[in-house]
Amino acid sequence: FSADPTISDFTISNGVALISAIKLYNPIAGIYNVTVSSTVPVALKAFEFQITITSGDVSSLDACGCVDCVRADISVAYPQGLCSNVNAYKSADVVQLQDVLVATRDAGGLLMGSTLNADERRAVSVQLVSYTLVTGESYTPTTATSPMLADASNEVSCLDATVGCEEVISPPSPPPTASPPPPSTGQPPAPPATPPPPPAETQYTRAASVGALYVINGIVAWCADGTSLHPSKNFCTPASASAEADKTTHEIAYLTELAANGDVLPDVAGTPGTALDFYGVRTAPGFVGDAKSLRFNRPKAGSYVLQFTSTCLEEKCPYSQNLGLISEFLEITIEPGVPHRLEFGGTPLPRRFDTNVTLPVFDVTTYDIADNVLEAMDANVTLTVAPPPFAVVGGSVPIVRGKAVFDGVKIIGMRGVEYDLTFSIADASITHEKMRIIPCEDVKPHASPMPDGSCACIAGYTEDHDVSGASALISTASFPDLYSQITTSVPLEFASYIQSLRPYGVCVPCAAGFYKSGVGSMPCDRCPANMDTYTGDDGMPVVPHVSQSGQTLPGYLGNTQKSACQCVVAEAPANKTESVRAYYRLDPPESYTCGACPAGAVCDARDVTYLSLLSGHWRANASTLSVFTCKSPHACAGGVGAADALCNAGYAGPLCGSCDRHAGYASLEDSKALETSLKCNKCWAPVASVFVMLMLLAAQLVVWRRVCVAAQSYIATSVIYTKVFVSHFQMLATLGLIDLGWPNAVGIIFPISRVTTSVSLKSFPADCLLKWSHASYAMYSVFSVCVFAALCVPYYCYMRITAFLKLRGEWYATKRELEDKYIAARRNGDDTRSLKHKLERMRNPPEFGDTVTNAYDLVLKTKVNRDGYIVQECSHEELTNMAPTAWDSTLGLFYATTLYMCWMPTLTGALRMIRTTEIEDIGTYLYVDYSVQTNAASFKVYLTIILLGASMFTAYMPYVAFKTLRERSETLTWMKTMTRYGFLYLGFNPERYYWELVVFMRKGMLVSIAVLLPDTPLLAAYLSVGVIQLSLALVLLLDVYERERHRRLETISLVVILISYNSGALMSSVRHAVSEIIASFALYFLNVAFVLYFMSCIRGDLEDEVIAAKLASERKDVESEEYLRREAVKRALVDTHQASRALHPRMASDLIAAFDNQTLVEELSKPGASDLKLKHVQLSVHLESIRNKWRQSKSVSNDPVARRDYETAVLALERKKAAMDHERWRRRVEAGADPGADSDGADVGSVASESRSSEGERKSVESDDSAFDRVDARVMQYNEIIAQQRLLAEREARREWPTDALGRELERVEPTYPPEYVPRPPRLPAQDSVSWTPPSAEIMLSSPLQSPTKAPRPTPSASVKPHKPPKPGDPFTYDYFELTAVRDALPTVEKQMQDLESSITANVAASRAHASTSTSLVPPPGERQSWRERMNDSSWRVQRRINARENAALMREFGQVDDTGDNEPTRRITVRENGNDGGDGHESVDDQLSSSDDDHAAPRRAPAGRAGRRAVSRRL
Description:
Distance between the termini: 146 Å
Number of helices: 31
Largest sheet: 8 strands, mixed
Structural class: alpha+beta
Radius of gyration: 69 Å
Helix content: 25-40%
Strand content: 5-15%
């Protein structure tokens, strides 16, 4: 009970005592026994009854459930007794209260627990009501001044907990927007009503120093934040979502475990909870995270009383009788925390003090973070001095009532040193900075403090000024006020003490050549031999320096280290062009020994790495004494350093003997790249270098293209010009290899000449861009041959495929032609066995892998001719004109391009790889490029590859080529030899085919002299002059060239090169500006003159070729005209002679006699013989032939043989007529014309009737001029029959069949007519014009199976040779008919050709004067030939009439006549010319036209004379 129970007063009446009330104060739940007894007056038997008290309504708050909480006795201020937490908190930056649990109890003291959950809105507030500091000061804070803070103080509504809430008036909300005016009603609108202002809104907020939480399960709690080591207890309220989630997770696990174990959740409702931690409220499971807590920020040490209250509104707690609960008070104690800072108290510490003297008394106070004095702390404050002195006395003092009193601190340290005194305890410290002990400078100048506190002379100074080693310049006489230097900055109490130290001595600096490294009064030490202190470690005279005492001294005085001693250096002359006597430091430096300076260097007392070389000297590394003299006067700059550091800008490598390509430097020409004349120039801008390089490569490509074109042209003029031009500039480039001192303006043309006429890339822009060494350039030159060889592979494939496609196309064309002939023969009813046999033999087309015909392989192949003799299979003419193979073209192109584009740079690069220079103790390097070390393993590999490749290419390949030429010297005119090796000998006389080898030897000797004698340029120049003079003499003495102009061009080229070499030698010997100007002018002038003469030679040759082409064309025209006339007379006589032999002997005796005694032939062959005579003879013979045939036809019936011949002839004529009529009808139908009308107005039936007419009528028709069109067909037919009969007879006699050049059997030709059929000789019709040439004159004079002999392939400069007559023994030749006299009697053309050549030469000369490129032989445009002049022109007249008649004959032969009635032929026969389309030397009808009915074959016309001349010009 809170108080003893009380019983109300009662009285006994009538034996009944009425007790109105029994009061129990704060009874706890339980059963109470009440005993009623009476002892007065008589003891009565007592009566007992029980009172049961259960849990009541909530009544009070209880915050004393923590483990360390103790409740005090009840007092007026604390009706329930003050609850105190005896576990004090340490003051800190933030102090969180641990596990403040507030439970609710009923009046009996039982815990409400979960029974209080009916009051859903009951809250408990907490606030700090008072606190008392340890100093005795008490405070009653307000909500604004309270040091306590509560988390989430505003989560509880101020309506539920009013403690700490303040009224806050918020601004009113804006007035509502006025509604739109009503629609107009015609009445004036009423004034708008002014809305009343909105009321202000009143809000409440709780102060941060007041906490409030809702009661859950009868408790509230404020706890510290939970950690993994100390999680918050279960009854704590999470303050963050993460903490809430962690608590929920653990809670679920806990409840799950309870359910699994069959346990129930504990509840403290109705229990007193006494003697239990936190009254038995469940603490597990805890959680990690922020919890709602009560905290203090840096609280002062003392006791703090918290009040917990709870008041609930009636509407919020309708079931509670006690709306306000009895408050609870909790007292917590905060004591000082850990040391945070220290403060000095009392007397301040001095800034200057003497050593080994006790400091004045001072104290240090300790405070925590809340400025609480740590009076109860039991620890020592420690003194730390920095830098560490020799000793510290009294440096650790205990803390008494928060203070540490230092009363005996003594510091023994160095004079003049500033010390920092740091006092520390735990993490708190305080520093007294820069307390300086009085320095020796104030006691003894230039002295240093000693450990015992005395002052001794510093390093570089000595007190022994009268002994050797002390400077005589420094003495007390020099410093009269030395003893009077008293520092006034020291405290006055120490002035007398310092004054007393002065008599201890004076410190003076060491003299020159001496040093003193220690502190004390010992004398200075002397430097080693050949060493003094006048030179510094940088090789320069020492500068004044400041001593350790702050005194400025000359550099050679007061030295403190032995390192100040440097080797003696004598003063160098002002010009610095010669060495002086000096010394350098020997290794190791610690030995302090010196050596004499080497020649070519200037020593500055430092070691060998700092030798300064004179200009023009070089050494490999900084540790060597080997000093070399540079070969080039421009390369070495001298100075301190080694290797490239001693070179001028742009030079690098051993002896600075190469240009620094990586720094953008290169030499302009080859002679400036030698070791004795090396001169490097700054590279141009990359864009300029690329542009110039592209221009050079373009020129190189043009020259290479020119070489390829010349090699494939087979034209001697083109070959000679190309070789002379390339050789000239290659020899000029060789001049640039000799160091003759050419100016840059001249020297740059040498690499340009080399790059443009060879594959070499070595030039100034190439060096700047590629940065290659000479080994790389040499390797490039060797591999360029491989590149050309690789490029020849696709070229060979292209040529091979092109040749194969051409051969295959010809095979298909031939097969189509045979098929067309076969079809036409079957349509006409002719014999097709021969054509069928040919088609069967052409079953398989040629394949790509078939063997290619090689002219060299056919030389020794033989065959058996018709007469049984062993002869060569192919004639010399056939072998000469045999087309070259793809391998021949590829090999010839490879020889030409490599020998003229790659030979010179390859030989030059290989020879330059041989000449080396050895540098002692360094290595061996290329003479022309010191960046290439020849004793390296990689160079040996390079050298092996280059020498092997260069030997194979520069020596073996020319040897093989000229050896082959020597072996095949008889085949120099063959197309195969010209294709392979023509570039090497075309243009030379046949006996001088080897001359190109002499040219190669000349160029090789020039290169060898220039490369192998670089250090003697004059000797190399004069030897080269001798080689050129010898070559010039050979050219002048030997008949080398076919043409005089070519010899003159070669001579002028050698003369220009000879003068260029002599000019360079003169300039090198004189070494004067005038000589340089003369030599440069001569070089430029002569080479420009050579180029101009070269162009003039080309123009002269071009004009000569034009003249030759025109002469050849005109000669061919004249010879063709004469040949046509001779052939016309011959053919007419042949026919007439054959017909005359068939005449009756009695009637033709005179005519036969005229033939036999040649009178008729001689008469008709005379120039100007009348055509009428020939016509009379022909008519007479024809008339007699008709008469004989008429007589013969009468006797046909009696002669079986004659009957058979007659029937065969009639049958052949009928079949041919029928075939012609049928074909003409078919073509007219296809053309859409009237098939019933013939071309001349007759119908088809007229032809049939003509075929059925009598033989007399047919002969009559054929005897007139209309039969002129049948001459070609008759002659061809007759010639074919005779040749077939003869050939078949010979083969049957030998029982063999001939083969071709490849050994394949020739196709069998089936005869068109039966073997026993022998036709009669053809008859020529009468002519009414000049001598006429039958279209098939060629076929009459040669067998159908033997093609006419082809003329050799002409060259542009060769004349067209006249047509050769057929070989004797063939049928129908001159000799056979004894017509030699006719041939010899014909007029010659020599006189005409002489006149024509004179006329053409005059015309060319006139055109040259008018700057014309061609000369026309036709009259000027304004002059037109008259009709009579054109008739007198026999060539024009004969050719015109022959073309017209031949075209008309062929058109009628094939039935192609214009259906419109125009007699002009619709197609013309093609005339071919010798040398262009493979003719036999004269213009003739193209007898290769197919005899089939293929009317779709387009005619082709060979170039006539003027077009041929233009073609020749284009080839040039």
